[in-house]
Write a structure and sequence with these properties.
Layout (H helix, E strand, L loop, with lengths): L15 H15 L2 E10 L2 E10 L2 E6 L2 E5 L10 H7 L23 H15 L4 E5 L2 E4 L3 E2 L5 H10 L7 H9 L39 E2 L6 E2 L9 H5 L17 E2 L2 E3 L1
Antiparallel strand pairs: 1-2, 2-3, 3-6, 4-5, 6-11, 7-10, 8-9
Length: 263
């Protein structure tokens, strides 16, 4: 069981001096360096971020313990633009679209459409649950796998005392405890939402920020963080930014590696 200060419940409550003491203890035990420790606010929530030097690469501390995962679509209601995009309007929500759109469906069908959209989200995301996870140091940025296959990547990481993340670990690293569809809330950024999905999340990671960069997990059949290959409705592609999103095959796209170091 992880010490309280390394759990998802305890870590966010630490001030910077306390978080630095924890980070320095982790660094001493694992032979890595501490780059910086600072207090960070993301989408209205605050927590310390601890960045480590692991063989010349930046890794950030991701607390463990009991963590909430998954997405409950029953409490989610799409905006008109999201509804239009789900129903096949490829221009809805695109940056070139008008910011205010009329409802593209007949009112009497709205309830049926909402039920279908929620059902589609349920098929694409993991179910709400609480799981026990270990605390980890997680690479801030993913790197391209190049021509290396899953087994070769796993062996190379193991030689360094590292590994790929399990699916639940990856989801937690991306969600940071948020129960909303996206780490910053239920709406995707638009002219009315200034949260940039490319900035570091609450743990200091740049993760689930590019819909065409599938990341390897411990499961050779499962990549996370990318939408399905090819063109589709704009909002469907942006579901890659949702930590609970599942089921998009990598296809022939380049794969990416996000190493983790158990602590």
């Amino acid at each position: 069981m992880a010490p309280h200060e390394l759990t998802a419940a305890g870590w966010p409550a630490l001030d910077v001096p306390a978080a630095r003491r924890v980070a320095e203890d982790v660094a001493a035990r694992h032979g890595v360096g501490v780059r910086e420790v600072f207090r960070y606010t993301y989408a209205g929530r605050g927590a310390p971020v601890a960045v480590f030097d692991v063989a010349g690469r930046d890794f950030a501390l991701v607390p463990g313990g009991p963590v909430p995962l998954g997405f409950d679509e029953r409490g989610w209601t799409p905006s008109e633009e999201e509804m239009a995009s789900f129903l096949g309007d490829e221009d809805a929500l695109s940056p070139a679209a008008e910011p205010v759109r009329s409802t593209p469906y007949e009112p009497e069908f709205a309830d049926a459409d909402l039920t279908e959209i929620r059902a589609r989200l349920a098929r694409r995301t993991t179910r709400p649950r609480v799981v026990e996870l270990p605390p980890l140091l997680v690479a801030v940025e993913a790197v391209a796998a190049g021509s290396r296959g899953h087994a070769e990547v796993a062996a190379e990481l193991a030689a360094l005392g590292q590994r790929l993340p399990a699916a639940d670990e990856w989801e937690h690293a991306a969600a940071c405890g948020a129960r909303s569809l996206f780490p910053w809330g239920d709406r995707f950024p638009s002219s009315a939402n200034t949260v940039d999905p490319s900035v570091p999340n609450l743990f200091g990671l740049r993760i689930a920020h590019h819909p065409d960069e599938p990341e390897l997990t411990t499961d050779p059949t499962l990549t996370l963080g990318a939408c399905a290959p090819g063109e589709g409705p704009w909002f469907e592609a942006r579901l890659a930014h949702a930590p609970a999103f599942r089921g998009a095959p990598a296809g022939n796209r380049p794969l990416f590696i996000r190493a983790v170091l158990p602590i």
